[in-house]
């Protein structure tokens, strides 16, 4: 597959919250050649995101990015309020007119917008809405039970914990060791990074497990017999907004093992203090209980998000979780994914 | 609300499997005046469905039903194979041309069919696709936690157990006792029966909990403070196809209590022998464990589907479940919903 060259549209929003933008810059095989954010023009990407070592230029407008020969405009942040602002619309039309394709992870599909659709048609370029569900989905067939892979799903105590990142780090570490390994994307950022996948939260709820099954089948086609599939988790069983997506993904992907993701010190779910996060032991039991209806799958390791702790506090938190859960725990971004991968491989036997 | 007069289209399919047709005939306030099934023309509805005492005529075609002055054609069965057969298409166009509205619970929306849409436009009649999700859904707001009702959700060990019927029987019994009580529909048959609701399995999975929350809020508007809301359950937590819908509905409706529905003797899930049904005690624990992330909700009674057992065997099965679970159990269709309602009210305190 020929690599793309991304210019990322992140107008007035290029910071560490721009998850699709920074995810693609960190993990996609295709390079990012420029970022559009007029409020940060003249700087480099690494100035705005802790830990992102990048000298990719931030420019004011599409015209300034063309010198870097981009092939694809990626809409890297959702504009506040949902409606597409004029600045976005102008940049998208400019990009199409300059021969670029456009990729978008927005809830509202750009391809359905008459003006943008017409611009793409005139330019003979493509608008790819990464969240758009494929046709022909249905309930699972049971094919998920017969796929000859080692399928690992990330679950956790909340959303916004880095379940995708944990999968990507484990996948990279497995590949470094020469193992057949496939990252299986289930959300728009993962799809932008890997170039395939299904945004399972956009699928009608009747078919969410069927969509997950299809991803496992396709992961096997990509990785072959015996490959490790790292299924990007979504939400959590205890998250009152997204738990349906989580359980459909758990049952549809029929994992052999689970990696539990948590942020030490987080006491209530992301953005809603009405919902306390239960203890880790209890939550780990929840995952195993729910998984068993399809396949007995143990939690084999705990991945921790420790970026808000200093290094000593991070190591202490990891040691505490290891003691409390009797599982290997680590922060794969900060300290490498080696120990977590060892735990996954050792539990596979 | 003026009553409708239904003619139900159930071509070549009017038997006990025609769940929307028989559900509406049993429970809807609006009467059914005729059933269209040319293979059974000249009989009455009660001839084909055990326990349905009905002398509604079965006729060969729409023309034969007009004498009974229907106002609304209800597409009462999904045709095999998904594609709309010509006989259905003809009957729908005939109905619109004769001044009837059309209601459909099919997955494929009739209103999106150009020929049918045009026919409705010409006739000035309405096509209502009962499964079509309303606009403006989103994740829950937390309003579900503050609704001053007593909210009861039916859950169970499988799909196709009669969770809707259990709700309808409990609602009818509560109304007989003069209690403020609302049946809250979450699927197409329930919507056809009650004339409102959302088919939650047709909502994108990100918003299934938000749709359930909206239904609880609307149930309160209909029933008032202190009303009992009977939320129609969908699927089951252990059902690998539909568990995501089930958990989203559980968390989004935020019930105060659960009624668990089961068929004694059913050992594997409906239509798929790969998935054994665990023991009742274990499954009841699953519901309570998952509910607690939003609100602590006990299982307060067990409703049993015993229609395949003779009366003695049914009474024995009920006694066994009562002994095993220490909960009141009964078959509300066969023996009345009184004891189950007593259990719900007594647990409410």
Helix residue percentage of chain A: 25-40%
Number of strands of chain A: 14
- Total helices of chain A: the number is 12
Profile the largest sheet of chain A: 6 strands, parallel
Ranges of chain A where pLDDT stays below 50 over 5 or more residues in a row are: none
Strand order of the largest sheet of chain A: 3-2-1-4-5-6
Oligomeric form:
homodimer
Question: How large is the radius of gyration of chain A?
Answer: 20 Å
The rough form of chain A would be described as: globular
The total tally of domains of chain A equals 2
Notable characteristics:
12 helices; homodimer; 2 domains; Rossmann fold; 6-stranded parallel β-sheet; 349 residues; globular; alpha/beta
